[in-house]
Structure formats: structure tokens, C-alpha cells
Amino acid sequence: MTSPVLILGARSDIARATARAFAAEGHPIQLAARHAADLQNDKADLETRYNVEVTLHDFDVLEVDRHDAFVDGLPVLPGIAVCAVGKMGEQADNETDTAAAVAVLRSNFEGPAILFGVLANRFAERGAGTLVGISSVAGDRGRASNYVYGSAKAGFTAFLSGLRNRLCKRNVHVVTVKPGFVNTAMTAHLDLPKKLTADPAEVATAIVAAVNKSRNIIYVRPIWWAVMMVIRNIPEAIFKKTSL
Amino acid sequence: MTVSGWGNFPKLDARLSAPRHEAALAALVAEGRAIARGNGRSYGDSAVSVANTIDMRCFDRMLGFDPATGQLVAEAGVMLADVIDSFLPRGWFPMVTPGTKLITLGGAIAADVHGKNHHVDGSFRACVDWIDVMGPDGAVTRCSRDENAVLFGWTLGGMGLTGVILRCAIRLRPVKSGWIRQQMIPAENLDAVITAFEDNMDATYSVAWIDCAAKGDRLGRSLVMLGEHADPGEVPARHRATPFHAPRHRKITFPMNAPSFALNPLTVRAFNALYYWNGARQKGQSIVDWDGYFYPLDAILKWNRLYGRKGFMQFQCVLPQDTARDGLNRLLTAISESGQASFLSVLKRFGPQDSPFSFPMEGYTLALDFPRHARAIALMPDLDAITLDHGGRYYLAKDSRLPADTFTAADPRAADFAAWRRDNGLADAFASAQSERLHL
After folding, report:
1. Confidence category of residue A1, pLDDT binned at 50, 70, 90
2. Average of per-residue pLDDT values in chain B
3. Does domain B179-405 have CATH number 3.40.462?
4. What is the pLDDT of residues B217-271, one digit of tens each?
5. B27 and chain A: CB distance < 8 Å anywhere?
6. What residues does each domain of chain A span?
7. Which superfamily does A5-239 belong to?
């Protein structure tokens, strides 16, 4: 119950809420992000609220050739790792600016996948562990409004699915989280429908429950399962003419 | 977007930003006419600025706790509910708490809130050791009783108009359990309530629910509730092994705005009578858990919908000790004769208060909810006249409707506060719809 939890991309709103939810259950927390020293206040917060041990770790998801060294540098191999790294960008920029598109594709797919590959091997060797990948409903079907981000998340979803398939006999569990709309810094400029929008704390609670119950794929608000079921099943001939 | 206070009036189309770090906050403050907003529990327009409302709830980190002194250092967006969640299991409780735990520490300081122990411990100010305040230029000033004491004084009760409250150090109270030994005293009229309060000045907590529909020789009939933190031995047997873990109350959410006819003089009078007789049956001592004792309304999420789409207004004044009996008598008479009885009415004895701009003063405070309809609105000038006649003043955290001249006449300190704001370059930097209405 009290194995350390590694939070990757610890600065995001979902990551902060998830760190709290695991700390509230007594887990020590490893916060990993770029410029980790700036996370002193988050460390203090988790220690003050929940009396758990918190460590800070510099981590850049795009430096894939250093992921092995990053995992080696952790004080102890975590029992649970949550990847909350993500970058949405602006679809318009992603269409015209190669650098922007590369950053989105690498931050949402390549970086997280390579890191989870490294962690998966360590967990498999140990014969225990849980990987939680925060993917997106945007990966369920590519849409004109954000297919660069969506396709990267689709790749990550497929990677998690394969990892789960490979590792289930090794006592390593993989959870795919599709939060739907969430009230975060990333979406602050968007006008989101209330019924479809979760708070970060709601996502965090769902993640902890999914880990505890070994769920495979979760939509944070169940309504998203229905919404995406419909979206996935619209025939392409019709879908391509829609603007969703 | 549409922003309003807990009373759902006024609803203003305001610019609302939620910065994540200090640099982003400073950039917003630099734009001027800024007001920080916590969890939106002030009733009126205190935490709304049409030009620049700043949601502070992302600044919600606890930064440290010293078990030797009970001092908690935290960012302003931390909620009182989080403080209780983290520290009651370790034997600590807020030193001062209002009737809801769903408020931020920044909001508690800005309104200098009070609780059922004001007559003993004073307002929230009593537990505040220091405050970090961000000024118009983004610079952060630490203020306390010894350091920048003038800023400290105006910030408590200053409704966020002295700068953005960023961090604070507050002291918690050690408790031996999460339970309260409650004593219920039915009081059949106003004289009996006042006697009950005056006879129990040594009780840690005291508050009265008052039946505003009662008339004649029942005018002011109340249930006075006293409370003390219970010892572990008094905790109900099945919770005695874990005395800090009171049972969680089931939360229900009020599903929608109630239709306007739901609250009428008849239902309000029936509710008040039932509440009184039910309470009177529970006369004497009982052991109740902290959540039920301090925060009964928090169990009904969005209870403000009870008052419907048009929202509601609070009338809360304090009358000085020497005029309180006569003033309360006249206020209650005016209310019961108008037929506009309030659904939730609370009477509380305040102790002495020494601070430049906080609401409380030694005497009695009366708090009433009214749905926002024409007859209730028409009653307000009568209540205001009685308040002014008796040297009373108003609680800004509850106000959404006071005319500026009434407020200024009731509270001469307002002019000093406004002058201090002007002299220190704060008048244009920080503003709320309320400060503009009341010329603060």
C-alpha cells in the first residue's frame, strides 16, 4: 500500500492532484519535472498535509537517451509511476510550424513511451509495479480541430495497450486514463461544457481507484465512454464532413 | 463570464483569471482594479471585480507546520476544510471558524471572519501571526503585529482591498477529540436569550438560532447552543478508539433552483416553529461531531439554490452592548410584523474586538437571510434605520445591497480606510464591485 509513487510531469494540475491523492493514502512521493528545484512548495505541501516523504527529481521527457539514467538516479524504484506529461499546443500552429508539431508529437508519445518502456523492464524484472498513462479521448479518433495532439495520444494509448498485454503475466499492471475535459491551465482559455468537464481532483480520485482495483482503461466521467463510442462509430464518409 | 457571490446576487459579467504562479499573479495585479477571490462564499459582490477578478484557488499549498506552537504556514487558497482534513487527525482544529469550512484562508483573513467563540477568542485575526500581501507593483510585503503593523491591521477585514493575500501563518488549537459537548438551551423570548448568553460567557462556543416569525411575548424565541471540545472519554463508545475520526456526513446536493413560491411566509413560519420545538425536545447536553456542530449547512451542497434563481441577501449587523436589547427588539418586531421572516436567523454575542476595520464589536450580532423579492427589499431601509439609530454596523462579507451613505454613516472607519487606500496608491489597483458601490 505504501510503495513510492513517481509522478512524471509533476507541475501540471492533474499531476499535483494525483500526487495529493496518493500521498493521502500514505504513499511516499517522487516528483519529477524540469527545474524540479522550483517544486519545493509542492514538496512542502505534500509533507505538511500528509506526513509523507517527498523527493524532487529533474526530468525532461524529451531527453529520451537519459531516461535510463533518470530511473537509475531515483532513490528507490517506485511501485507506481504516473505519467502526466502532456502538451497540447495550438492546432493551427501544429499544422504550419514543424517545430511545434514535433514538440507535441514527441512530448505526448515518444517521450512518455520510451520512459514507460524503461520502467516496464525494471518493473517486469522485479515482478511487480503499476504504470499509469494519462492519455486522452482525443486519441480515440482524429479530428480536424486537434489531430496532431490526438494522434500522439492515440500512439500512447496503443503503446499502453501493448505494454499491458505484454506485462500482465509478469504481475505488472498498466492503466490507461482518458480524462475527457479537465479544468486545468492547459484548458483555461477554452469554454468547456460543465457536464463533460472534471476537476483535477476528480481525475486524481479516479486514478487512485483505478490503481487499487487494477482497472485497465478508464474514462474519468463515464459519459465520455458513451460520447466516444458514438464518435468512433460514425462512418468515415460522414465523419470527414463534420466539424467536431 | 458570469460571477456572483454565494447569494447569487448580483450576477456580474466579469473577467476571471486563475493564475498558477506568482509572476502570472503579479502581471494581473499590474493591470489594476484587481480583486482576489477565494471559494466564492462571501454573499454579495465583495469578491467580484468586473475588470479583473483573480481566482486564488491554485495557490493552495500548505508550506509547513510546527507542532510545538501549532503554527501552520499556508498559501491563501488553502481551504479551512483541508486544514481540518489534515490536522484534526493529529489533534488540531482551527482556532476560529465561521459556519462553513468551504472558505479559503485568504478569504477568512480578508473578511476577518468570526465564529461561535468570538466572545472568548475574538475574530480570525486572533490566530493570524503574519500575512504576505502582494502590492500593486507585484512586491510582496510580510506584515504582522510587529512588522508593517498598519498594513496588517487594515488587511484583516479589508476585504482584499489592501493587496492580494498570498500566504499566511495561522495558529491552530489543540483538541482532544473531534467531538463537541453541546448544551441546548431553549429560550422563550429575547430577554431569555440575552440572559442565556450573558450567563454563559465562559462557554467556549455559543450561538443562538432565532425564530424571526415569532411575535408578541414569544418575540425572539431561540435555541441557544453552547459547546465545548469533548474529552476522549466522552466520545460515543463506538468511536472512542479513534476519537478524531468522526463519521463522515453524507453530502447531498440541492438539485436545482427552487421555484420562487417554495419559500413563503407560511413555509418559513412552519419551518421555524418545527425547528424550535424539535430543538426544545433536545434540551440539555449531548455529544455531537465537529462537522454537524460547526458546519450543518455544508452537508447540503449548493444550498443557496433554495432561494431560487433571483438569489438572496443577508442582513447582518452588530449592535453595541448598551443598545443591543432595545435594538434587537425593534429589529425583530419589524421583521415579524412585515411577515418577511427569515429562514435561517442567527444571534450571537460578540466579545471585545480591537482592530481598525474588522466587523465585530462587543455586543450582539444578528444575521438573517431574505430571498430577493420586492417585499423583503422594501423591508431593508427599516432595518437599516433601526441599526443606525442603535449605533450598529455591517458585515461586508454578507452585504450585496447597502447604499453607500448608510454604510458610511454606520461605520465611520470606512472614510479612514478609503483615505489610507488613496494615500498608499491602492485605490485604483484593488477594487471590487462592493468597494465601488460603497466608495471604499
Report:
1. low
2. 94
3. yes
4. 999 999 999 999 999 999 999 999 999 988 777 777 877 787 767 777 778 788 8
5. no
6. 5-239
7. NAD(P)-binding Rossmann-like Domain (3.40.50.720)
Q: Which residue of B has its CA nearest to A49?
A: B86
CB spacing of A41 vs B72 below 8 angstroms: no
3 state DSSP class of A133:
strand
Give yes or no: A149 in active site: yes
Cα→Cα distances A87→A153, A199, B19, B101, Å: 10, 18, 18, 35
Q: Which of A45, A185, A188 sits opposite B61 (nearest CB)?
A: A45
Kindly identify which residue of chain B lies nearest to residue A45, measuring between CA atoms: B62
Q: Residue A45: its chain B contacts at CB < 8 A?
A: 60-63
| CATH number of this structure's domain B62-176, picked from the four choices 3.20.20.450, 1.20.1250.20, 3.40.50.1000, 3.30.465.10 | 3.30.465.10
- Interchain contact B61–A (C-beta under 8 A): yes
DSSP class per residue in A215-234? -SEEESSTHHHHHHHHHHHS
Distance CA A214, CA B61 (A): 30
State the complex-level ipTM.
0.92
CA B237 to chain A, closest CA, distance in angstroms equals 26
β-pairing verdict for A80-83 and B52-55: unpaired
Domain residue ranges in chain B:
62-176, 179-405
Of A50, A147, A149, A219, catalytic: A149
Radius of gyration over alpha carbons of chain A, in Å? Answer: 17
B12 and B2 Cβ atoms separated by less than 8 Å: yes
